[in-house]
Amino acid sequence: MDFLEPMIALDETHYQDGYKDGYDDGMVSGKEEGRQVGLKLGFQVGEELGFYQGCLDVWMSIIRLDQGAFSARVRKYMEQLAALLSNYPLSDPENNLQDMMKEIRLKFRVITGSLGAKLGYEGRPTSSEQDLEDI
Amino acid sequence: NAPCPPRAVDPQRPPVNELPSTPPRWSPPPPPSGKSPPSLLAPPRTPSAAPHSALPARHSPATRARNPRQATAIAGEQAMDGGAAELRETHRLTGHADRAWSLAWNPNPGPGAGPVLASCGGDKTVRIWKRAPDGVWDCSDVLDGVHERTVRSCAWSPDGKLLATASFDGTTAIWEYSGGDFECVATLEGHDNEVKSVSWSQSGSLLATCSRDKAVWIWEVQPGNEHECVAVLQGHTQDVKMVQWHPVLSVLVSVSYDNTIRVWADDGDDDWHCVQTLAEAGNGGHSSTVWSVSFNQKGDRMVTCSDDCTLKIWDTSADLSQPTTGEGHESWFHLSTLSGHHGRTIFSAHWSSEDVIASGAGDDAICLYAEEKSTMVEGPSYRLILKKEKAHDMDVNCVRWCPQDPRVLASASDDGTVKLWELWGNLLD
């Protein structure tokens, strides 16, 4: 029965060949797609977080020059924002990324609202734009 | 939602906001000898008529506060000692070019000054109304050019010097009266979308706003028109319709499209959290959108009104501003539900200093209620005093009792008008 073995193995061989081809193709196109998505979303997230970090860096410099530039309450908010930003997992995505981003955005608005500064990250569409007159 | 059409003026009749303060079908009463209290809607009898002079008790059958007038009433009027309760329209204030949303009486207009009323609406403006020496109500100021959308709510600071206006444009503006003019001195930004309501704390140092973004923001008012955000309260799952500070305690109430009433307090360190939620299940709460909330003067009672066409009275005597020590702390609870009087959404309710509750609804009517003083041990109950059908031509959006005269009521409507009413008669059965 030895001469029958290659015949049985042929099925398996073709399976393995096909699998390898598909795997190699998938790797290439998957990597490309991931790159596109990563560029888009990752870039957006990075840009927004970078904006807030940049503002924070400016505020921290002000505090170094003038301790009393901001009230104790606002300084506390800035420290909280700094903590939120540094906790955001840039390299290891977790599940509650949306919530973390919302928290960061809210903290930023609380600070700018308290400073009376018209400062906002321009890249993100605001939820109010498409909404109509309400009661 | 269409803006109301301009009203044609009948050349045979004087323009409506110049009507004499007494209803046309009575003949003017002889000047009283000093027994009847000065009415804020009539020309002052003496130059120094102070609106705050002691008003004789209106409820007690023994005093006949309005008698001199009613003695001269023409046939058809009821018994001389007061008669059935009646809500009489005294003035109709026109000017808003769109629906009138909300009203606020200045709690402290100044020594010797008459009452001052602010109204706001869909035409993006706020109008200030004052009574002239001849008794006619005039629009003394129009606050515009700041808000880019509907002004939904307005509130005076306790000292009467500042007016906060909340708008669908997402901002809350603070106006100061200086040099004969109202000037916008600050703009609070923070909400994601339409701001629905604004309320000053009794100390005047905190301001609360709420919005369709489901959040309630608390701001601290600082010298130099600076404002800092103290807290952002999240908990409601839908549009928050109104916020109202407790008249005495450092406690904030918010009501929402999510059918609940939430009570917020802080632990003394700017850390605000929800200390109680009054929902349908378990609390006897509303089964639909809660639109308004109003406390009585003492703060131990609160009325809420809803899309479910009811008003609910709550016992709010528990001091929720104190941190809970262990289990079993007191809470606010449902006392009574008033239903069957309005056939549509009740948009507004207000509790007067004489304990008369007014409500305004989508059925164009205004209802008045008072506590039923009975000897039943089941607890307080409330009864309808009167229903004013067709108080306006369209939805009644807001009702507010005048702080200087608790018999005077102002109402605002989708028909673009603000009306002033006077409550006459005996409120006891």
Rounded to an integer in angstroms, the radius of gyration calculated over CA atoms of chain B is 21 Å
Number of domains of chain A: 1
Low-confidence blocks of residues of chain A:
126-131
* Mean pLDDT reading of chain A: 87
Largest interface (CB < 8 Å): A-B, 17 and 24 residues
- The SSE order of chain A reads HHH
Relative helix content of chain A: over 70%
Q: Tell how many strands the DSSP assignment of chain A holds.
A: 0
Spatially, the strands of the biggest sheet of chain B line up as 1-28-27-26
Organism (chain A): Aegilops tauschii subsp. strangulata
Family (chain A): Belongs to the LTO1 family.
Protein name (chain A): Essential protein Yae1 N-terminal domain-containing protein
Domain Essential protein Yae1 N-terminal (chain A): 18-56
In summary, what is this structure?
Chain A: Pfam families: Yae1_N (PF09811). Chain A: It comes from Aegilops tauschii subsp. strangulata. The complex is a heterodimer of chains A (135) and B (429). Chain A is mainly alpha-helical.
Task: Detail the topology: elements first, then pairings.
The complex is a heterodimer of chains A (135) and B (429).
Chain A: H1 5-65, H2 72-87, H3 97-115
Helix pairs in contact in A: 1-2, 2-3
Chain B: H1 67-71, E1 86-93, E2 100-105, E3 116-121, E4 126-131, E5 137-143, E6 151-156, E7 162-167, E8 171-178, E9 181-189, E10 195-200, E11 206-211, E12 215-222, E13 226-234, E14 240-245, E15 251-256, E16 261-266, E17 272-278, H2 280-283, E18 290-295, E19 301-306, E20 311-315, E21 333-338, E22 346-351, E23 356-361, E24 366-372, E25 381-388, E26 396-401, E27 408-413, E28 418-424
Antiparallel strand pairs in B: 1-28, 2-3, 3-4, 4-5, 6-7, 7-8, 8-9, 10-11, 11-12, 12-13, 14-15, 15-16, 16-17, 18-19, 19-20, 20-21, 22-23, 23-24, 24-25, 26-27, 27-28
WD repeats (chain B): 93-130, 147-176, 188-229, 233-264, 283-315, 389-423
Protein name (chain B): Probable cytosolic iron-sulfur protein assembly protein CIAO1 homolog
Biased composition (Pro residues) (chain B): 1-14, 21-46
